[in-house]
Queue: 3 jobs
Job 1
Amino acid sequence: DIQMTQSPSTLSASVGDRVTITCRASRSVSTWLAWYQQKPGKAPKVVIYDASNLQSGVPSRFSGSGSGTEFTLTISSLQPDDFATYYCQQYNSYSTFGRGTKVEIK
Amino acid sequence: EVQLVESGGGLVKPGGSLRLSCAASGFTFSSYSMNWVRQAPGKGLEWVSSISSTSSQIHHADPVKGRFTISRDNAKNSLYLQMNSLRAEDTAVYYCARSPTSVTGSYRDYWGQGTLVTVSS
């Protein structure tokens, strides 16, 4: 099984900050990686797929990069609507989610 | 508009069974693979099961293998999850989610609102 390790688990930031979340895979997943945003009581929403492709309708301040075992999700200028929990997911071999990164207000 | 509506959750005793359903609309259901993903209270997301558009590929995560069965009825635009021998650790919100491919092994582009399954005596 492929394990996904996200860091940090919690991130405190202010509106306008540049935010970066990291996800590491226990073995290569090529670029078969997605990022999801989840708000309390709501279903997750995909923001990035195939490591760097922006899902339709998602603001361009979100970007993804990486391949193999190291990936990052970057929010270039944090907005009030972005405070949420973010999960990475590999789909190279079945499916595994990371444990999540909560982005909270500083 | 793509819509996924889960139903069938509830309270069940350990060792019991439950069948979840997911009604799909707004897209050609028979062309897409489908998935179940769960989230225990206050915890992260966990993949449960996936099925390809024609049911030729079916995969279950190790924690549920042999107890849960995913299936679909393309004529009824419906996805199912039969859950047997339920355990307390199966307590979670269960989400139905679509993948943008006909085969399994992709991300989830649309999600339902989830249905809560509670396993407790």
Job 2
Amino acid sequence: KNEVEQSPQNLTAQEGEFITINCSYSVGISALHWLQQHPGGGIVSLFMLSSGKKKHGRLIATINIQEKHSSLHITASHPRDSAVYICAVGTKQGAQKLVFGQGTRLTINP
Amino acid sequence: ETGVTQSPTHLIKTRGQQVTLRCSSQSGHNTVSWYQQALGQGPQFIFQYYREEENGRGNFPPRFSGLQFPNYSSELNVNALELDDSALYLCASSRAGGSGETQYFGPGTRLLVL
């Protein structure tokens, strides 16, 4: 079992829909990161959170430390939101590193 | 503020060769982390350099080595290349070491080993 699991792996929706991507992890963490990767490889950090909820524009990230679960929500989705969304956790034990999920490929159709 | 840059953008090598990839960190950042991303997979942590010292390493063999320079730029060296080393190599810089800092990623170097 991977230390970080994301669901769904692929998601296709229509413009305007509310999107939810889930992330579960099994290790102790210092922080959880949500990242966006566009075709061609560039990765942008969207959020880093260790508790509660953060909002930036149409993006909302939440984390439940007790349940070891985080969600990324996109409101009023737009075709330009199409990308791979990656959840990564910063580990507390041993080498302090980021452990990444497999990513969720999101496609928003106009 | 200058972003993270990587060079080269693309590289083709043959098995057994050696390669050096370069990363310039964002200004004000003293930490660089390197990741390998195989096609269709999430990135895997290779190692992190903090103030010129290795500050954590993932499950990669010793033929993967690195350096960080006084200006905090960094190199990733891979010896005795194997076909499975074909991947996108990403570096990311941050203000401090560890795993609890926001990381700023470079555009990556795409390596193909034939």
Job 3
Amino acid sequence: GDSVTQTEGPVTVSESESLIINCTYSATSIAYPNLFWYVRYPGEGLQLLLKVITAGQKGSSRGFEATYNKETTSFHLQKASVQESDSAVYYCALGESGSFNKLTFGAGTRLAVCP
Amino acid sequence: DTTVKQNPRYKLARVGKPVNLICSQTMNHDTMYWYQKKPNQAPKLLLFYYDKILNREADTFEKFQSSRPNNSFCSLYIGSAGLEYSAMYLCASSFNQDTQYFGPGTRLLVL
């Protein structure tokens, strides 16, 4: 079946440092997966951070970026300079257009940004 | 307003007793989903409603029921709770197979 593997947390970085959270996927049943990063801030529900539906394209939001790399089946999340407010749990996910975009999630990566 | 609401936020249930969780949205979304999230595990899709049609994942087919009395509400029903049902239950909704919007979740503890 389809699966998503991401950096195991917790990840701790200092404010203004750079960040990368790795995500690789296996889409055995989906020819053209859509890729997502969701984030869960403390006390809130999962919310979409960014999505990319075309291989080779980059998505960006709130200073975060991720590039859909079909060759390496990766969708790593990067930010050049994190802030304390970025502390949250980040989930990589894949879905399929035309199949109700049912999502297959990774286990999540807890990020703690220290002031 | 892109809010998905879930009630209750916390639920304590006894082994063998039924559990009913509620989700609502006012975005007129055509699809509503239920996921189960256990600690250190990925959220797992249990089932979803597209309009009035229920689709259950194969490995959860017999464990969970659901109803959608109208476009705005969707419930998740466990007929006889077991310890293994302790988890966070996440509801989401979407329109036209686009972005899913999630609620805050209901944390269920079965004792």
